[in-house]
Amino acid sequence: MREQTKVVNPRSRKGLLIQQDSTTSIPHQVVLWATAASMLWGASYVAAKYSVGYIPPFTAASFRFAVVALCSLPLLWLTGKVQHIERDDWPDLITVGLFQTSFYFALQYAGIKLTTASNTSVIVNVRPVFAAVLSAFVLHETLSGRKLAGVLTAFVGVIILSTGGTLRSFSLQSSHFLGDLLILFNAISGAIGLVVNKRVLARFRPFPAMVYTQTIGAIGLVPFAALEISRLGAFPRAPALPWIMLAFQGLFSTILAHILWNRALASLEASRASVFIYIAPLTTSVLSWLLLHEPLGLPFLIGALLVLIGAYLTTSAANGNQIAKRSEP
Question: Could you read off the pLDDT of 108-124 as tens digits, one per residue?
């Protein structure tokens, strides 16, 4: 069986169709790259949960992406991958930067402070589910029965995660529910960015697109951090380790993971690559249980399974090349 995958020219909206053999085995190094990228994404939620225990969330997010911008911009120049930005490119770049970095991580870090790292890593996987719904309205893509089933399945999973599987002890005023709600808005923000990012990836290669949008996002996080610090009355003082964890997220869970993921995508069918992203919530769950002592009861396992099944149903019904590109956490 042979699968057709659309390959998009970085500066053109037109694509070429190439044939890929879906029966061939995946090279070991490609499996290693994709697995490592997904595990780094999974570890980032545990590092974030630890960091926001010492550093206010907006300041933490701003520091992480300051590290990303300061390191990725020179790397982009040194590798000769700089692409010219035209005037018409700016609206989409700014939109993606705000919704996939600024608003996205402001909401995520505020949410993860109140809920668990494991819940966060699972709920963010409804991002492609929201993206499928938005694409149907904004880009007029078909919302098939398979996608609708995925949306409903993921929605039920989120409810189970947020309620702990029972409504008896559930409260709309609980900090845990508020945290999950912020992560849900975080996923919606990311979905908006994903839809617009389709146009960005039609004009830019993945690495320059990441550098440009996340640098814009880093700038967009500064007002959040400034407001937070002004309310505190002083710059937050914290031990070295939380700052090191934030730098780890910037260097390894963002820059290195992106490079590894795109190296894997160069040798993988998109339908196969999309499977690897589900290693991320598994990594988070194991690490949060081991390091943060977060409970992993039956309601969490059932809710997580439903969310991931819903995300898979939604993305597997989408265009193959876009599945893998928009599945990056």
Answer: 999 999 999 999 988 88
Q: What does the DSSP 8-state code read for residue 88?
A: G
Domain of residue 110, residue span: 2-326
- pTM score over 0.90: no
C-alpha span between 298 and 304 (Å, rounded): 10
Q: Report helix, strand and coil shares of the chain as percent, to nearest 5.
A: 75, 5, 20
| Residues 76 and 82: beta-carbon distance below 8 Å | yes
Query: Would you place residue 3 in the very low, low, confident or very high pLDDT band (cuts 50, 70, 90)?
Result: very low
- Identify which of 169, 131, 126, 113 has the alpha carbon closest to the alpha carbon of residue 297: 169
Closest to 246 in 3D by CA, of 68, 30, 119, 64 = 64
Please tell me the distance from the alpha carbon of residue 18 to that of residue 12, in angstroms, as a whole number. 17
Sequence letter at residue 243: W
SS3 86: coil
Please name every residue paired with 16 in a beta bridge, in sequence order, or none if there are none: 7
pLDDT digits (tens, 9 = 90+) for 120-149: 988 888 887 888 788 777 777 777 788 788
Q: What's the token pair of residue 79?
A: 């590798």
Q: Residue 173 has what DSSP assignment?
A: T
Query: Please, are residues 12 and 201 in contact by the beta-carbon 8 Å criterion?
Result: no
Collapsing DSSP to helix, strand or coil, 21 comes out as strand
* Contacts (Cβ under 8 Å, ≥6 apart) of 200: 89, 92, 93, 96, 209, 213
CB atoms within 10 A of CB 207: 18
Mean pLDDT of the chain: 84
Rounded CA gap, 231 and 223, in Å?
12
C-alpha dihedral sign at 299, 185, 211, 68 = negative
Domain count within the chain: 1
Going by C-alpha positions, the residue among 60, 113, 69 that lies closest to residue 229 is 60
